[in-house]
């Protein structure tokens, strides 16, 4: 059995993956602020509803890959557990390329129950995609944006 803080946002038949408008807006603002570098964040909430996020700083500024400092990642997980929330996914940007998982994205992702978001800032309109890892590849998933509860 998975620990309670590790969410399963795709496990709910009648409850689609969702993101609050407020979090959506803040993620985009922070992503654009980080441009031309990659931005990444942990997405947190309960069940299938993402209601908050934790920005993750990268140990090295990189335009093409994202990586986390191990201690910062453990701190973020502690925050999630203390808040009695669940880790529901990660988001990172592709500042210069479409929102398609790269080879290093494929190699670096091991949490198949979580959602994997990519926001491309390569064209004038930001492009959002949510994926789920499934046996060797990423499947595109749909989601809804919800107003604040
Ligand atoms: Zn990527």
From TrEMBL:
Keywords: Hydrolase, Metal-binding, Metalloprotease, Protease, Zinc. It comes from the Bacteria. Residues 21-131 form the JAB domain. CDD domains: MPN_like. Transmembrane segments: none annotated. This is Peptidase.
């Amino acid at each position: 059995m998975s620990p309670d803080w590790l969410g399963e946002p795709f496990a709910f038949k009648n409850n689609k993956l969702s993101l609050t408008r407020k979090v959506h807006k803040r993620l985009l603002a922070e992503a654009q602020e980080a441009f031309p570098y990659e931005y990444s964040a942990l997405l947190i909430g309960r069940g299938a509803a993402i209601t908050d996020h934790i920005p993750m700083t990268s140990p090295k500024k990189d335009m093409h890959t994202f990586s986390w400092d191990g201690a910062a990642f453990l701190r973020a997980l502690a925050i999630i557990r203390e808040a009695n929330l669940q880790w529901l996914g990660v988001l990172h940007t592709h500042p210069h390329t479409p929102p398609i998982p790269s080879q290093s994205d494929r190699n670096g992702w091991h949490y198949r129950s979580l959602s994997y978001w990519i926001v491309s800032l390569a064209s004038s309109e930001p492009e959002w995609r949510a994926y789920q890892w499934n046996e060797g590849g990423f499947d595109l998933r749909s989601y809804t944006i919800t107003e604040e509860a």
